[in-house]
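hey so u asked for the seq, here:
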Amino acid sequence: MSATPKHLAVLFPGQGSQERGMGRALAEVSSEAAELWTMAEKASGLPLREIYWEGDEAAMADTRALQPAMTAATLGLWFFLRQKLAGVVGFAGHSLGEYAALAASGMLEVEAALALTSLRGRLMAEAAGGEGAMAAVLKLSLDAIEDVVREAGEAAGRLLVVANYNSPGQFVLSGDKAAIEAAAALAKERKGRAVPLAVSGAFHSPLMAAPAAELEKALRKAGLRCPAAAPVFFNVTGAAEPDADKALTLMCRQMTSQVRWIDTMANLHAAGARTFVELGPKGVLAKLATANLKGVCDDCTAANIADPAGAAVLEA
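ran it, structure tokens below
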């Protein structure tokens, strides 16, 4: 990768990519990154640096802390690296990460992104305790997944949807716990593998309608503006939407709608992206980019940058 890569897609991870110590090394060398953590703590009312730099797995998994903390950590990387990330053709964020993508593009004020993710995390935590659950299903085709969802939902008599279309071999189901259990059994029968997710509810499904309605009020108050940088490719459609009013409508639907990541990767590629850089821990989205573009783009590359040392990949 050259020092000033062109045809770049910048990706922001979501819930599940958190890890102990995230953002610490950057905050120690960047006052701008440190200030993001201060702003996130003010917005959430939580000691985020204590939780993520010194805490345990259970504390880090609490969505009330996780959402503003992840947003601060990933946006810190963007602001630290933006001069090196030349030639961006598009931004995208997976679920929660979409708020960081909006802020990086200039569509959303940084302070608003931290306030909204703090509220989103609280609302999703408060929605927990019901019968909702989620599971990732691997090794089954889209047609097979859709058959599983239909049959398991009908057998259980409960809500079940595909929440995330992550890659051709990875989908996430969301819905009632009984329906998720039925789907896991069917997936196993059909040579797939279902992995229950450690989440507190049926996210990206109609079961999130109540918290989504509350979040919509705050989203509309914050508002969006036309992107100052490259466009954001939205979860709900997988496509770019430069019109601020239409983009706001998409964000108001995000919590109850599917994450169309397969379409997002395809549309970023069609827009000219050839290098996909994920900013944040673990590298989940870099791996998904590789999976989605396999056999489609021989000259595409994907990389993950989690801390200042990782920026060396931009010089490789």
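The two ends are 5 Å apart (CA to CA). The chain has a mean pLDDT of 94.
lmk if thats what u needed
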